[in-house]
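U., I forgot to send this yesterday:
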Amino acid sequence: MSHSNLTSDLINYESGDLNDIETLELFSTLIKTGYAWQLQGHYGRMAYALINDGWINKDGSLTDKAELNGLT
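Result:
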């Protein structure tokens, strides 16, 4: 994902324009790149919540939970 796409996705997330799978994919990317821990606190807290709730692995890969819940 390019920086311009990431910026666009962050803006769409902040505006509430991403669906559930797009949000998971965004946070997957933020975790993989380390940006989840560098941006404002909300992103790190949300990333931790998605990891703790079993949606995303610590390495940023999506778990099977999204597929099992019909999000993919």
